[in-house]
Amino acid sequence: MPHPAIAPSQTDRWRTLRLFNIFRIILATTLFGLTLLPTANSTLQTTHSALFQNASLLFLLFSVASSIAIHKQWPRFGTQVYLYAIIDIIAITTLTHALNSGEGSLEILLIITIIGTALLLPERGATFIASFATLALLGERSYSQLIDQISVNYTQAGLLGATFFAVALLSAALNRRLKESEQLAEQRGIDLANLAQLNQHVMQLLQSGVLVIDNNQQVRLINQTALQLLGQPNKSSQLNQLSDSLQHHYQHWAETKQQPDSPFKTAQNSTEISAHFKLLGSQVEHGTIIFLEDSSALSQRVQHLKLASLGQLTASIAHEIRNPLGAISHAAQLLDESPALEQEDKRLIEIISNHSNRMNTIIESILQLSRREEFKPTTIAMNEWLASFLDELTSSNQIDTNDIAIHINSSETIAVDPTHLYQIVSNLCNNAIHHSRNYPKAPKVELHYGISPAHQRPYLDIEDHGPGISPADAEHIFEPFYTTENSGTGLGLYIARELCECNHATLDYIKSNSGARFRITFSNLDTTQQRL
């Protein structure tokens, strides 16, 4: 659909008229100044010196008064243009008659008036002014011949009149072309502005982060998603100020032209980010566009595949192991009831029962993971939820309320599945209490809720004051079936991290000098809603 024609700016039209009026003032001043020269009579060669002086003075005064009317923009634009053109024609014709030469030495100035009028009025108006100038020219010639008895060259007057019409038509055509070009340029400007605004909106609404950098690694463009992923609340001018890891990936790509095959983190507990680089032109000097993706989406897909495989595995385990295990446990119980057993045999039966129960616990944990219900997020106010959680945890597990302390530094709400959240936090708190039970410091466990300054996301820390975790064990604590306890299953932290990923959160171990600290980093409320 074609765009409608755009009318020229009123401001530009008045500015053009103001410039044209400045020329009129300069012309009138020059003509009037000639009458003040000592050699004015010989220079002008006129027998009507008083008429020339008075006409030029009136022309000057009217031109000065016109500047006031133009500034006030009253009367309206078209009226002023017609009025000034008519006055100019009358003034120049009168001054030409005052020279009394019969050659029309000043009437050539009428061409400038016609050109200026044609640039300010429609084609019909320019033709009218040319007709008026021609009639004034012929009228002055006839008056000079009849009254002053001066020989007049009508051929020259006719040619000059024809020139007026030609100049008017050419100027009107030029004016039309200029307006069309102006309209086209203005329309192109509007289209470019709309396109730039549209691109800006699209970039800001993209769930992927987008950066544009030049060959000096200076950031030229960045959207809000990229700022959130990189954990920067404000825009930075250099790539290394946004992320050292991202700069390292960019330098590696610039040297090898190979996309990075591993994600990176801007902080220890931040989201994993995948980067993809693409040239804007044929050379690096033309700039590079960088796409940033939250790897959690890919992790979610991998998670679904793992859960599907795990579901098939647990079904086989339940069918192949649980029934024989139940039979072994039941047989051990019956054998334990026999009165003829010796003490050494009872010890062997106890070992069978303990290991059967442990195997059953492992199977129950795996089944719990595979049968987990679908993620059902709920908006939760953490200050209220933590108070309720503390009451329920201490009462159901017979834990002293003085052993757990809660520190709340933010009122930010989150969107998580409350059942999953309770299972995650209770698991971490029970582990923390278990590992710090032999340490006298109170409270044994501290919960800290706040907003991470690095990436502006809410987090919950569960910190104990126990022996901590060795660096060698810290690399494997989230692996399934990895445990340092003889009676443990090695699935607690693994299940807790899986539940966090299902809720678009992360679970990380953070080094601490006073014990062990685990941090749950939640997604922002609006980000979670967009993913849903």
Structure description:
The chain has 4 domains: 10-194; 205-294, Beta-Lactamase, CATH 3.30.450.20; 298-370; 378-531, 2-Layer Sandwich (Heat Shock Protein 90). 59% of the residues lie in helices and 12% in strands. It contains 17 helices and 11 strands. It has helices spanning 10-35, 40-44, 49-72, 77-99, 110-120, 123-146, 154-205, 224-230, 239-242, 244-256, 295-336, 343-370, 382-396, 418-435, 471-474, 492-502, 525-531, and strands at residues 209-213, 219-222, 273-279, 288-294, 378-381, 404-408, 413-416, 445-451, 458-464, 506-511, 516-521. Strand 8 and strand 9 form a beta hairpin. Helix 5 runs parallel beside helix 7. It is rod-shaped, with a radius of gyration of 46 Å. The two termini are 37 Å apart. The relative contact order is 0.05. Residues 1-7 have low confidence and may be disordered.
